[in-house]
Write a structure and sequence with these properties.
With about 425 residues, the chain is mainly alpha-helical. Helices cover about 75% and strands about 0% of the residues.
């Protein structure tokens, strides 16, 4: 209890000293080489997530022919390990530096995809899903952590990272969809492994661990990869900061729209006879508006308070993914996919900046890990719940039911958040 209270006091002091306003665009002198290494890491790691979000559901449906509930269990397995280990991963990045951790998990990301076609059994696929999900999450977490460790939560850099990550939505789905149509499962999974190879080289080019970190110059040890209870206590203590707690909860709802896109969105489109290439273009439509929306955040926060803007963006993301079954043509689906991308793209840098400015320099990784833990935990159960609803009410109706529940939850959080609208956020 004493350690928890001390952590609360330290984090509160940081907020009082620094405030929780977003950094002004261009307020630091981060070298361009470092900036581009971070943006490339963000693009490649989220590209891997986008590849898996399209490829795995298609492969599961064609190869295993499972029920909707079993589809939900298989796809829900992907965020399970990240839900359990994101805080530990963030603590490792605070302790050792993001670069080292990202290199290790990039190697895991290279190996795992090519094992899928070799193990077409449900429980083997579940295990591979968990490992693949952990690898991509740790890489993406590293890019976010560097925004805090190196770029001090600057809103412009957060927007650029958000834009780079959404470029994965724009460029990758058509590529992996075409690979599925023309090269089959083996070609598509090999392409995914090749992409992870690019992530490995991007991680190599990242800046070395800062000397401010407790073991920046030490070698990696096996025990560094063993979770420590103290890391979890310190991470959960961050929830005592109201803005961090609020952003974590809002982030869960936002991330649930990604969980839908990476599971039953693809299953639904496949069920109404869209090809892999067509599904790829629909998924890439999110990047068209998302990239630009993320870049506008630094300017929009001068006009609209970040907390308010965050709620507007997340509400849009929920609405535009939920009305998918109400659209009947390819172009209607393309439009709402683009609007979903704009909403998701705008909300990402807001979350990154608010949390980076609300945590001290030695808690950047843990703050990211806390948010991702909540996201991945929710994403583990959402496909299972949605699959159970689809078994009873149909896949199309499951979109509307889940969407209504998420909007109601967001409304409750907005009511709670009114106290922050008169503050710096």
């Amino acid at each position: 209890d004493r350690a928890f209270a001390d952590t609360q006091q330290r984090t509160a002091e940081v907020i009082n000293e620094r405030g929780i306003k977003l950094a002004e665009p261009g307020s630091d002198n981060t070298p361009l080489r470092v900036q581009w290494a971070v943006y490339a890491s963000g693009y490649l790691s989220t590209s891997m997530q986008n590849m898996a979000g399209l490829l795995i559901p298609l492969w599961v449906v064609v190869t295993l022919d499972p029920s909707p509930l079993m589809i939900g269990i298989i796809l829900g397995a992907r965020p399970l390990l990240p839900a359990l280990l994101s805080i530990h991963g963030g603590a490792m990045m605070d302790h050792l530096g993001a670069k080292r951790v990202m290199i290790v998990f990039a190697i895991v990301g290279i190996v795992v995809p090519i094992l899928f076609p070799l193990a077409p059994w449900i429980w083997a696929v579940i295990i591979l899903q968990m490992l693949s999900g952990l690898a991509t999450t740790m890489s993406w977490m590293g890019a976010q952590t560097l925004i805090g460790q190196v770029m001090k939560g600057d809103a412009t850099h957060s927007g650029r990272l958000g834009s780079a990550s959404l470029m994965g939505n724009l460029t990758v789905p058509p590529i992996i969809g075409a690979a599925w149509d023309f090269m089959g499962p083996w070609g598509a999974f090999l392409l995914m492994s090749l992409w992870a190879g690019g992530l490995f080289f991007a991680a190599i080019l990242l800046p070395a661990a800062s000397q401010e970190l407790s073991r920046a110059s030490d070698r990696l040890r096996i025990r560094d990869f063993i979770p420590r209870p103290s890391s979890y206590i310190e991470a959960f203590a961050l929830l005592s900061i109201p803005t961090i707690a609020l952003v974590v909860l809002v982030s869960v709802l936002r991330n649930n729209t990604y969980a839908i896109r990476g599971s039953f969105y693809v299953v639904y489109l496949d069920g109404i006879h869209f090809t892999g290439t067509e599904i790829g273009f629909l998924m890439s439509a999110a990047g068209i508006l998302g990239v630009g929306a993320a870049l506008l955040v630094g300017h929009l926060t001068k006009l609209i308070k970040p907390i308010i803007l965050l709620f507007i963006a997340v509400a849009g993301a929920i609405i535009f993914i939920s009305i998918t079954p109400l659209m009947s043509t390819f172009w209607q689906l393309m439009i709402i996919a683009g609007l979903w991308g704009a909403s998701a793209g705008m909300s990402m840098p807001l979350m990154l900046s608010i949390m980076a400015k609300s945590a001290d320099a030695k808690s950047q990784g843990k703050s990211v890990g806390m948010r991702l833990t909540a996201n991945r935990l929710a994403a583990t159960f959402l496909p299972v719940l949605m699959g159970a609803i689809a078994d009873v009410a149909g896949i199309g109706n499951s979109f509307l039911i889940i969407g209504a529940a998420m909007l109601a939850s967001l409304g409750g959080l907005a009511f709670y958040a009114r106290r922050f609208t008169n503050e710096g956020t």
